[in-house]
Amino acid sequence: MMEITSPGKIILFGEHAVVYGKPAIAAPVNSLTTNVKLKETDDEISKIIVPDKSLTPEERNRLEELVELMKKELDIKDNFHITIDSSIPISSGMGSSASLCVSIAKSLFLHKNNSVDVDELSKLALIGEKIFHGNPSGIDTNVVSYNQTLFFQKKKKNEFIKIKKPLNILIADSGIKGSTKRAVSLVKKKYEENKIIYSKIFDDMEKISIVSKKAIEEGDIEKLGRMMTLNHALLKMIGISNEKLDYIFSSAIDYGAYGAKISGAGMGGNIIALVKEKDIENITEALRENGAVHVYHTVIK
Ligand code: PMV
To answer: Do residues 118 and 102 make contact, with C-beta atoms less than 8 angstroms apart?
Structure first.
C-alpha cells in the first residue's frame, strides 16, 4: 500500500493576473493536508473511498474520471482502492483540488516507477486539475507539488523564494463556497469587454508581485502588508470580492493586521491577513466575530 500526504496552499499575490501570464506568489500550508492511500486490487475497476463523506454521483464520477485519466497518462493498467482523507475545506481557495490531484498523481508515479520527478508530478496533477477548474494557470499544482513558496509565472521556470522573516498568516474562511471556474470566467468576460483597463490592472498586480517578492526576501513585513492591501483593492476592482469578504478584510485591518486580501479565486473562499505574532489571538477573535467560519494560523518560513 502507498500512502501520500500533500499540503494545501494560499496565494499571497497575483491570483487572476496569473491566468493572463503575470507572475504570482503562492505558499504551501502544511497544517491542512490531503492524504491518499493507494491499494492495488484485483477488481475490474478502481474504487474511490472517502470515509465520513457520502459523495454525490457527480463528485464520484469526477474522482473516477481523474484516476482513469492519470492512469492512462502513465500507462497503468492496474486497478486500485483509493482512500481519500482531506482536512482542506473545499471551494475555499486553499488548494483542496490541487492537493488531491498531487496526492493521487504522486501515488500513481510511485506505484509505477518507485520514484517521482517533481516537474512531471506537477504536470500530471495539472492535467487532473483541469477536470475541476477548466483551464487553471498551474500555480496551485506547482506550489503543492514543490511544497515551497513560489514565484510562479506560466511558461517560465519556477523561482523559489527565500523567506527572511517568518510570516504569520491568518486564513479566515468566509464559509461561502467560491467556484474558481466561475470566478475565472467572470473575470475573462469583463476582460474581453474592457481589455485596456483590465490589462492595466493586471500590470499593477504584476508590479505588486515583483515588489512583494523582494519584500519577502528582505524581511520587510510592513511593506508586504501594504502590498497585500493594495492587491485586495485591485481584486475588488475586477469584481471578485463581496460584502462578507470586505467585512472580514476590514476587521483584519481595523484590528491591526499589517495587511489583508482575498486569497484565491474569490467570490467566496478566504481572506488572508499578515499579522504580528502578539496579535494572533486578538485578530483571530475579531475575524470570527466578523463572519469567518474558521480561522487557521499558518507560518510561512
Ligand atoms: O483555486 P483558487 O481558488 O485558489 O484560485 C486559483 C487562482 C486563480 O488565479 C484565480 C486561477 C488560476 O488558475 O490561477
So the answer is: no
Residue 119 has pLDDT above 90, yes or no: yes
Q: Report whether residue 173 contacts ligand 1, using a CB cutoff of 6 Å.
A: no
Phi-psi region of 21 (alpha: psi -120 to 50; beta: other; left: phi over 0): left
Per residue in 252-287, pLDDT tens? 999 999 999 999 999 999 999 999 999 999 999 999
- For residue 162 the three cell numbers come to 527565500
CA angle 148, 152, 158 (to 5 degrees): 65
Give the contacts of 233 (CB within 8 A, at least 6 positions apart).
none
**Cβ neighbours of residue 286 closer than 8 Å, sequence gap 6 or more:** 251, 252, 254, 255
Please give the distance, rounded to the nearest whole angstrom, from the Cα atom of residue 136 to the centre of ligand 1.
7
Instruction: Please name the residues in contact with 66: beta carbons below 8 A apart, sequence gap of 6 or more.
Output: 100, 101, 104, 128, 131
137, 201, 205, best to mutate for ligand 1 pocket (most atoms within 8 Å of CB): 137
Residue 49: how many other CB atoms lie within 10 Å: 13
Q: How far is CA 65 from CA 48, 95, 141, 161, in A?
A: 11, 19, 18, 35
Average pLDDT (38-43) is: 97
For residues 111 and 40, the answer to whether their CB atoms sit within 8 Å is yes
Query: What average pLDDT does the structure give for the chain?
Result: 97
Q: State pTM to two decimals.
A: 0.97
